[in-house]
Batch of 4 targets.
Target 1
Amino acid sequence: MTTGAMKVGFVSLLGRPNAGKSTLLNRIVGHKLAIVSDKPQTTRHRILGVRNYEAGQPQAGQVVFVDTPGVHKPTHRMNVRMVDAALQAMREVDLITLVVDASVTPGPGDEYLLRVLKDVQTPVILVLNKVDRIAKPALLPLMDRYHRARSFAEIVPVSAAEGTNVDVLERLFLEHLPEGAPLYPPDYVTDQPERLMVTEIVREQVLRMTHDELPFSTAVLIDRYEETGALAHIYCTILVERDSQKPIVVGRAGAMIKQIGTAARLELESYLQQRVYLDLHVKVRSEWRNDERMLDEIGLQPPDDGS
Ligand SMILES: Nc1nc2c(ncn2[C@@H]2O[C@H](COP(=O)(O)OP(=O)(O)OP(=O)(O)O)[C@@H](O)[C@H]2O)c(=O)[nH]1
Ligand SMILES: [Mg+2]
C-alpha cells in the first residue's frame, strides 16, 4: 500500500564478497559512491548512500543505504574490522538486504550468513543478484531453497549491473520502511570523505590491473594534497606487503604504475571536476594488514568490543 506520507529509514546491504552490493548501491543512489571490482573483498568500509524519492516516484521517501564489506573468514586484523563493520551495520538499520550472487552455487559462506541472521528480528529482504547471468529456470530452485531456509520479508531477483527489477526492489524498500521525517537534507548523498574516495579511486585501478594476492594486500594513502589554481596535486602511496610485490605494481620500466596512474587520474578528474596531477609511489610495509595503527590510518574502525 502506498500512502502520501514519507517513508524513511536505514537499509543495510549485507552479503558475501563479490555479490554485487556496491554495484546495487551505486545503481540506486545514482552516483558512484563505492568502488566495484571483480575481485572479492573490494569494499573495506561501511559506506552510506542516501536516495530521496518524490511523491509518486513511487512515493515520497528517504532511504539511507549502508553498503558494507563482504562477510568472509578473517585472515588478518584488517578483515576482522571489515567483517565487524558489516555485522555491526546489520544491528543499526530498519531493514536488512541480503545480497546473494545467484550465478554461483550456494556454499558455506551463504550458510554462515543465514546462521548470522537466524535470530535477527529486523526484517530481511533477499536479493538474488546477477540474474542476467543465469537461465530463468535456475532461479526457482534457488528461491525455493532460501524460502525454506528462513522467513524473508521479500525475495527479489535483480540485476544490479543491468538495472533489471531494481525499481521493484526500491518500491519494496519504501513499503517496508516506517513513516517519518527525513534524516538528511535533500542534497546530502554520502558520509564518505572526499579524501577517502580519492584513495579508493586509486585502489580501484590497482584492483583492476593486478591479480593474485595483490588486490588484497594493497592500501592507498594520501601523502600530500595541494591545490594550485585549477589543478589538484595529489601524492599517494600504494602500500604492498612484500618486496616481491613492489615490482609487480611498478611494472617493467614503470609501465604498470603509469597505467594505474593514468586511469586513476582520469577518474579523479571526473570525480573532483578539476584537473589533477597524480603522483603514485609504491612502498613495502610488511604485515600492514595486522598493524592496528595502519588500519586506523586507512579509516577502518576497530571492532566494537575492542578485540
Ligand atoms: N553480470 C553481473 N555482474 C554483476 C552484477 N552486479 C555486480 N556484478 C559484478 O560483480 C562484481 C562484484 O561487484 P561488487 O559490487 O564489487 O560486489 P560487492 O558485493 O560490493 O563486493 P565486496 O565489496 O567485495 O563485498 C563486479 O565485477 C560487478 O561488475 C550483475 O547484476 N550482473
Ligand atoms: Mg563492495
Target 2
Amino acid sequence: MLEKAVKLFTQHPATAAGFLIVAGLAIEVCLLVALGVGRVLSDRKRAALECRRLELEIEKARQQIKTVKEASAAWNGTRKFSVAQKVMECADTFSFYLKPHDGKPLPSFKPGQYLTFQLNVPGLGKPLVRCYSLSDCARTSHYRVTIKRCPPPEAGGHPPGVGSSFFCDQVKVGDILDVKAPNGHFHLDLEQERPVVLISGGVGVTPMVAMANALTEARANREIWFFHGARNGNDHMFKAYMNGLAAENKNVRMHVCYSKPMGAEKSGHDYHHEGRVTVDLFKQLLPSNNFEYFLCGPGAFMESITEDLRRWGVPDEWVHFEAFGPASVKRAAKPEAKVAVTFPPFGGLEVTFAKSGKKVAWQGAGRSLLELAEEARVKIDAGCRAGNCGSCLVAIKSGTVEYIGSHGADVEQGSCLACICRPATALVIDA
Ligand SMILES: Cc1cc2nc3c(=O)[nH]c(=O)nc-3n(C[C@H](O)[C@H](O)[C@H](O)COP(=O)(O)OP(=O)(O)OC[C@H]3O[C@@H](n4cnc5c(N)ncnc54)[C@H](O)[C@@H]3O)c2cc1C
C-alpha cells in the first residue's frame, strides 16, 4: 500500500498532491462534523442540566410558598403551645416564650395584636378565657406574652386576679397551654411612613414593645417617640431593654416618667421625667402634633390622653388605643356605625333573655348588654369585657344591637358580643 503510494507520488506528483489535499480536507470536515456533533451533544446535556436546575428551583419555590402559606394561615379554635421559657421582667411580671407543640410553622401577626388563652385553672369548673398582647414582633420560632399579676382593688377584700396569678405562680416551662390565633384591630401598619408616638402606662407597654421592635427590625427609620409611665423602677418592665433600644436606634426617642420614684432613683439617670405621661409633655417635646398615636394603659390614663390629644387638634383617626379591661374611652362613633335608637314613651326597650325566660327594660343608660344581663342575674360568659376574647358571644333571636366600641373578636352572623354592645331595638337573645 505504502509502495503504491510512493510510486504514485513519484510518477504523478500533482495527482498525489491533489489527493492529499482532498484527503486532508475530508479529514478536516470529519473532524468538524465530529466536533459539531460533540458540541450539539454537550449543548443538549447542558440544556438538560439547566432544565433540571430550573425544575429544582421551581420545586424549591413551591416549597417556600407552601411554608409561607402554612405560616401565614391562622388556625381555628385553639392550638397547643408549650412554654419554652419563663422570664421574670420585674416584680410580679413574667414573660412567657411559647412554641407550637405540633412543631409546625407559626403564622405571623401584626405588632399590637394579642393571643387569647383558655386556661385550665385548678378549681374552676371550666376554662378561664384571658387575652394577652404579644410583647415582641413576629418571630418564626415562638410567640412571647408578658403578664403582670393583676393586684386586688385598693379597697381590699378580694384576691388578686385569677388568670394572671395562675400564670405568675403556676405556669412553668414545659406546660402546655390552649391558645387562639393572634387577633385584634389595634396594630401598627408597617407600610405607613408617618412618625409614631407610642404611649404606655404600666403593663400597657407590652404591645408598644412589639411595635417598637417591629419598626426597628424593619429598619424603617420611621421616627418613634416612646413615652412610658411607671410608678418607679420596681414597676418598670423591660427597663434595660428599652434603654438599649433607644441607644441602638437613632430614630427612637425614649421618655420614661416615674410617678413615685424611689429615694435613690435619679431623674436623667433612672428615668427622664417625674410625674405622669401627659399631652403637656408631648407639647414640650414633640416638634408638632403631626404623628400617629398608639396608646395602651389604665382606663383613666387613656381617657385623659385621648381627650387632651383631641383638644390639641389631633384627628381621631390618628389615635389608636387598646383597653386591657372594660373599654372606658369614649370616642365619637363613625357615622355609619350609628344606629338610631328609638325608645318607646314608657318602659324602655324590652330585652328578652329567651333561655332563662326573663324580660327586662333597657332604659338607655350607659351599660352594655352584658351588664344588663348580670343585673337581671342572667348568666352570660365574660372574659376581657372589651370585645376581644369572644367569650360573651350570644345569638340574637330577633332585634338589633349597636356597638359601644370597636372589638377584636369576630362576630358570627346573627350574634353579638354582649360586653361591648347595647340594644338598638327590642331584643330577644339566646341567654
Ligand atoms: C386585648 C387585651 C390584651 C391584654 N394584654 C395584657 C398583657 O399584655 N399583659 C397583662 O398582664 N394583661 C393583659 N391584659 C389583661 C388580661 O387579659 C387580664 O384582664 C388581666 O390579667 C386580669 O385578669 P385576671 O384573671 O388576672 O383577673 P380577674 O380574676 O379577672 O380579676 C380582675 C380584678 O378584679 C378583682 N376582683 C376579684 N374578685 C373581685 C370581686 N368579687 N369584686 C371586685 N373585684 C374583684 C381582682 O383582684 C383583680 O383586681 C390584656 C387584656 C386585653 C383585653
Target 3
Amino acid sequence: MDRIRNPFTPGAGVRPPLLVGRDTQLLDMSVAIQRMARGRFERSTLLTGLRGVGKTVLLNEFGRIAEQNGWRHEHLEVSDDTDIAKAIATLARRSLLEMSRTKRAAERAKRALGALRSFVKVHVPMSDGTTLTIDLDPRPGVADSGDLDVDLGGIFTELGETAADANTGLLYTIDELQYLDNHKFGALIVGLHRVSQIGLPLLVAGAGLPSLPGLAGEARSYAERLFAYSNVGSLDESDARRVLEESAASEGTRWHADALDELVARTEGYPYFLQEFGKQAWNVADGPEITRADVEIASTLAIEELDAGFFRARIDKTTNAERDYLRAMATLPGNPPYRSGDVAGALGKRTPQVGAVRDGLIKRGLLYAPRHGQLSFTVPMFEQFIHRSLT
Ligand SMILES: Nc1ncnc2c1ncn2[C@@H]1O[C@H](COP(=O)(O)OP(=O)(O)OP(=O)(O)O)[C@@H](O)[C@H]1O
Ligand SMILES: [Mg+2]
C-alpha cells in the first residue's frame, strides 16, 4: 500500500496518531494542573517503564495539557554527564525571560533573574556559563548559599512565585531521570520539596526506567510522598487491537482477523513494537485488507529493523565483559528476574567478581534490579535479541 499514507510511527518520542491506554495518566495531569492553579498541593509525577512503552510521548502530551491550561512548559532530557545545576538554570532562565516580557510579572521576573544570576555564579563553572548570561544585577542571598539542595529550592521558589504573579504555571518535564546520580537526584527532590510545601504553581513530571522509584527512595526518604508514581506498561489486548485497527482505519484500511490476532500476539502489546510491525505490514500489503500472509513477511522485516535500530542502539557502547554478562543472563533457564548470583555462576565467577560489570549495565540503563539481588532487562524482548545477535 501507499507508503506515504502509512499511519504507523515507530520512533523515539514520536507522537502516535492514536494515543491509546493512557487516559488515567492524562486525566491525572490535567487535574493536577487545574488544582495547582487554585493553590492546592499536588504531587509531582514520576513515570516509570521499560524502553519503548511511551514515556516520552506521555511527557510531551503533559506539555500540551499544560499549554492548553495557560501554563508554560519546558523539557529536559538527562544523560549521564548532565550537570543538573546548569540544566535547571537553563530552563529557569528561559521561563523567566519569557515571563519578564509580560506586564504583570516583569518586575518579579527581573528580581528572580537576579537571583538566578547569583545561583549561576556559585553553581555553574565559568567556562560552562557562557550560554547563561543574564544582563541584570545579581541578587545575592536567595539561591547562592553553595548548598545545591537549598539553592535549587530557592530557584524553584522564585520560579513559582513569578509564575503565580504572571497568572500562569510552570511544568518541567524531565526525561531519562535514571541517569541522574543519587546526589543530583536528591538535590532536585529537596529543591522541589520546598516549593511543593508553599502551594506555588510549579510541577515536575519525570520519566525513567523502572529503577527510578528505588533511586528516588534512596536519594531522599520523603520522595515517596513527593511523587505520584505511575507505571507505564505494554497495552492490554483490546488497546493493542485498537492501535492497529484505528490507525489502519484512519487511512481507510482494515486487518483480516487472523492478521490482527497474529500481530497482537507477536508484539505483546508493546507500543514501539506495535508501531514497527504495523508499519511493515502496511508497506508489505497490497490492500485493501492486510492479511495474515502480509504479517508473516512483515514480521521478518520488522525484526530486522528493530535489531538494527531499537535493540542495537542499546548495546553499541557495551564492553566485551558486559556483552558476556548479558549473554550469560539470557541463557539462564526460566524467565526474568534472574538472581545476580546465578548470572555470576553461569560465568564461572562469584557475585562480587562481576559486580562492577553488573553495575555498569545498570548505569547504562540496560538492566535494573526489581529487588535486591535480582536482575531484569529494561528492553522488552531483549533476550530474544541476544539469542539472535550475540550468541
Ligand atoms: N499509547 C500509545 N499508543 C500507541 N503507540 C504509542 C503509545 N505510546 C507510545 N507509542 C509509540 O511507541 C513508541 C515509543 O514511544 P516513546 O519513545 O515515548 O517510548 P519511551 O518509553 O520513551 O521509550 P525509551 O525508554 O526508549 O525512551 C513510539 O513510536 C510511539 O509512537
Ligand atoms: Mg523515551
Target 4
Amino acid sequence: MTHLPFQDWLFEDTLDVIQADALHSHLETCVECRSLEGAFQQVEHSLRSTSQVAPAAGFTLRWQEKLEVERGRLHKHQIRLAFAFGLGGALILLGSLAILFWPLLDSLDALLWAVVYQLYLAFTVVHQVGGILAALARALAPALPLLFWVLILGLLTQASVLWVVSYRYITNPRRIEI
Ligand SMILES: [Zn+2]
C-alpha cells in the first residue's frame, strides 16, 4: 500500500474537501498513517502545553555586562592588531631603506668622513660669521650710545621669553576640564 500523498497531507492545514475525504478514508484503513497522525498530534499537544521558561532574575543586566566585556575584548584586539600592523609597516620600511642604502652602509667609513667634513664646514662658516658680527659690533660700539645696547638687550630678552612661553603653550597637552 502506498502512503503518499496521505503522509504529506497529515502535516498540511490547507486541504480541500476531496483531499480531506480521501485522507480520512485512508486513515480508517491504514494503521501506519494512523499511528503517524497520533504521534504528530501528541507532539503538537505537548508543544502547546509546555509553559515557557522565564529567564533567571537579572538576565538582562548580566547580558549587558557580558556584552560590555566582549566589546572591551574586541577593542583591545583591534588595538593590538593596529599596533602589529604599524610595527610590521615600520619594519618593512626599515628593511626597504636598508636595501636602498646598502651601498652607502657598505662604505660606512666614507660616509662618516663626509659627515665629519660637512660638520667641519658648518663650524667654519658659523665661526666666520661670528667673527664678522663681533668685528661689526666692535666697530659700531664707540659710535652708538649705551642706551641703544640696553634697548637691544631688552628686546632680545623679551623675544626669548616670548619664544619660551609660546613653545610651552604649543607643546603642552591641552587640559580637559570635567
Ligand atoms: Zn497509509
